[in-house]
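Structure request: 4-diphosphocytidyl-2-C-methyl-D-erythritol kinase, Iodidimonas muriae.
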Amino acid sequence: MMQKDVGIKVFAPAKINLYLHITGRREDGYHCLDSVFLFTGLADELVMTPADQMRLVIDGPTSGALAGEAVDDNLVLRAVRLMGEAMGVSQKLDIRLTKNIPVAAGVGGGSADAAAAMQGCATLWQNREQAHRLSSSRMIELAEHLGADVPPCLDGKPVRVEGIGEQLSPVGTAPDWGILLANPNVAMPTPAVFKAYKNSGLPFSAALEDGPFWTDMDWLQTVARNDLEATALALQPEIKMVIDALAALPGARLARMSGSGATCFALFDSPEEALAAHADFVKKHPGWWSWAGATF
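Returned structure:
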């Protein structure tokens, strides 16, 4: 049994949208989508330790983008409070969040942090007397209250996401691909991109009758796409420069924007190829944020 004064470390991996099709819009204004989430070796870290007072400290390479934001509104603390209510636990936590994932960048950093905080609470509190254990389905229900991208981030495994994010279907094991992520250091808040998409009048994508054949690079290139990409490029033209730079890298099989942007990715046949391409990429584009590694 875990001692109550022992803390744990949990990881919050960044996700990419291999494709993102907007298939409709509900009467309440929410857009319906079809996407496959793939996760990466880039991750935020949370150290969660039982304490007398609730506290969240944020540090790390990309934490500067959160400067000035109200800590009480952070998704991590909202997730902890939600889990405490659901599990019947009132214990306070001292949390250190180390940010490695860019903020408002289309790779699910905040959502991944919230999902990791939920998993951390479940682990810390599962053996406490009178604590309510939560099923996987109940965890997903709770995660929906924190945002559409939080439920898919709970397991950190490849998953097809449909509806407004509540319909989840595991899609198997990820290939041993390599990935290079790049961002021109511009924030793209998701609500602004969806508002611009709505106002653009672009047609919705038809439902996929076959697929998704998400491990097939040819299918990803010819059938799949990111329906938010054109809108995001209109808001931030520099994104097109990032996509073109990624597509020109030796060994790059696919280059695309992730989510609502502005982070873009290139896929490679192996992590080694991605790392080799990254060494050259950072020399040519030192002003952009970038990272390379594996997918899972």
